[in-house]
Amino acid sequence: MAEKPWSGRFSEKTDAAVERFTASHAYDRRLYPYDIEGSMAHCRMLAKVGVITTAEADQLVNGLADVKQELDQGEFVFSDSLEDIHMHIESRLGTRVGEVAKKLHTARSRNDQVALDIRLYLRHETRRVIDLLKTLRSAVVALAEKNDDVIMPGYTHTQRAQPVLFAHHLMAWYEMFTRDQDRFVDSLKRTNVMPLGAAALAGTPYPIDRPYVAQLLDFPAVTANSMDTVADRDFAMEFLAAASICMVHLSRLSEELVLWSSSEFSFITLSDAFTTGSSIMPQKKNPDIPEIVRGKTGRVVGSLMALITLMKGLPMTYNRDMQEDKEPLFDAVDTITACLDITARMIPEITVNREKMRAAAAVGFLNATDMADYLAAKGVPFRQAHECAGKAVAFALGKGKELDQLSLDEIRQFSSRIEPDIFDHLTLEHMINRRQSIGGTATATVRAAIAGARTHLASEKTE
Known about the structure:
Strand content: under 5%
Largest sheet: 2 strands, antiparallel
Strand order of the largest sheet: 1-2
Low-confidence stretches: none
Oligomer: single chain
Number of helices: 19
Helix content: 55-70%
Structural class: mainly alpha
Number of strands: 4
Shape: elongated
Mean pLDDT: 95
Radius of gyration: 31 Å
């Protein structure tokens, strides 16, 4: 049985059931590259300030590199007697380099060591999420650009409301995912702060050089308060909050893809490569990918709730409860990266059924608002114009016609201000292109938005 790092205080061995209950290496082992990277930087700093010799630092760094190689190659042996990845690495280092391994932990605690590992890990994963969001946004813009003349119904309350360009609808998704990316970029600033040196909670009496460690690990700043440093998981909660909002957006997009690919809509066709069939119904082509993405949203939101609930009652500073921060964080990272990746792959393979979309936009009185606007432009107060258009809709319903199918005499009975040019105002193209306000669905406006998005994407730096 491996010796515990705190064994000097205890006269009895830890119960095997306790070892099993407290062990976290089954999931925190994914932190090993960051743990070793941090330990190497710590060794270099200890040598720089004279706490250990340069030769000892070299020996420790080389030993850590050997341990990393074992972990990389899957040759490392784990044991519940060494509860976490940090103890496993330190113990294995001892078998490789001998007594000098006991100097590795000088001037640090597992409290600030764990905080460092999580920050290094989350910094890497946040940058990956940002890159995936950029890929997804690019895919959305490309689909919009390819279909910038397709007209579809816009909806409120899941009811047809007014015609819009399909590209305009897609660019709404672009805006949502751009905000998501901005949130991750912003949260990265608070993740990317170096905690090592806080020790257990009070700092350390050793003459450490925290800025030097930050430089070695590419952190732009160090944490300001040792107690806050080891107690803080705000950065992880912030990541999970951003991830939850992003997953809500992915879920809303997925819901529309599910609806649009149904026989009732037939607005789009999902590629066979991103759908599945039925085990009993040969005709089925199921939108499983967006359905699964929609379903996985609950996992990420649940991870946020788990961590917030975990932290809400903890006094300063570190408490063992905080061991439970990793599983929800890891699961959320795995989930959102998988969902972003598969969605970005699926979007370019969508086939747009433009005639179906246009036909849906041409019925259901989507031009009623434009009739009211036409009358308002002729000097009729808008509320009165709204009433006239509503009466015209009721009349047309009774005739089984659309507004633009009524005769001039039929439609003029609702207002003497109506002239023959009314029918020009009720066409889909006219309705689309009248809406030239900033952010509107007019063709020129949407094409400008697409061009702006292209420029923005090209200018973005990789984090």
